[in-house]
Write a structure and sequence with these properties.
This protein is α+β, with helices and mostly antiparallel strands and about 170 residues long. About 25% of the residues lie in helices and about 35% in strands. Strand 3 and strand 4 form a beta hairpin. Helix 3 crosses helix 4.
Length: about 170
C-alpha cells in the first residue's frame, strides 16, 4: 500500500521539494515528499495531499524546477478559407515574444486535423515555467486570437471559434 509505494517514491529520489509535477489532473510544487504521501502546492496555493499509492497508479509528469524548458501545447482551429502556411506564419509571429516562451527549442505550429468547424492547429511553445502555464496559455491564446483576427482568418470559421488549451498533446 502507501508504505511500499512511499519507499519507492522516496528511494528513487525523483520527487524533491521545489520540483513541479502533474499527478493526474493536479499540477503543483512538491512541498513535502513523504513515506505515506506527497504534499503539493497548486498555482492557486492550495495544498493537496496525494497518497503514495495514488502516485503509483496515476501518470506522474515531472515538470522540473525551472532549470530546463518544458513543452506546452495549445490547440485551436481556423477557417478552411485560410491557407495553413499563412495560419502557421501568423501564429508563429503571435507567440514569438510571449513572456516566458523560450527561444530554443523554437515555437512551432502543426496542422493536426481537418475538423467540421475548421482546420485544427497545435501551437507548441517551451517554457522554463510550464508549471505556471495558466498565465502562459492565457497569453498565447489571447495573442493568437488577436493575430488571427487582424489577419482576417477568424471571419469564416464555421460554428463557434474553437480555441482551447490542451495538455501533453492529448486531444
Amino acid at each position: 500500500g502507501n508504505l511500499l509505494a512511499g519507499l519507492a517514491v522516496v528511494w528513487e529520489g525523483r520527487l524533491k521539494a521545489g520540483e513541479w509535477v502533474r499527478v493526474g489532473d493536479v499540477v503543483g510544487e512538491v512541498v513535502a515528499p513523504g513515506w505515506r504521501s506527497v504534499v503539493l502546492r497548486t498555482t492557486l496555493h492550495e495544498l493537496v495531499v496525494i497518497p503514495n499509492s495514488k502516485m503509483t497508479e496515476e501518470r506522474v509528469t515531472l515538470l522540473g524546477d525551472g532549470t530546463r524548458p518544458v513543452g506546452v501545447e495549445i490547440a485551436l482551429s481556423a477557417s478552411y478559407d485560410a491557407p495553413p502556411d499563412r495560419v502557421h506564419r501568423v501564429l508563429l509571429e503571435a507567440v514569438r515574444d510571449v513572456p516566458g516562451v523560450e527561444v530554443a527549442p523554437a515555437p512551432m505550429v502543426l496542422t493536426q486535423d481537418l475538423a467540421d468547424n475548421g482546420i485544427v492547429y497545435a501551437v507548441r511553445v517551451w517554457s522554463r515555467h510550464a508549471f505556471s502555464d495558466t498565465r502562459l496559455r492565457s497569453e498565447v491564446l489571447s495573442r493568437a486570437y488577436s493575430a488571427l483576427g487582424r489577419a482576417g482568418i477568424l471571419k469564416g470559421v464555421r460554428g463557434p471559434l474553437s480555441i482551447k488549451a490542451q495538455r501533453d498533446g492529448q486531444f
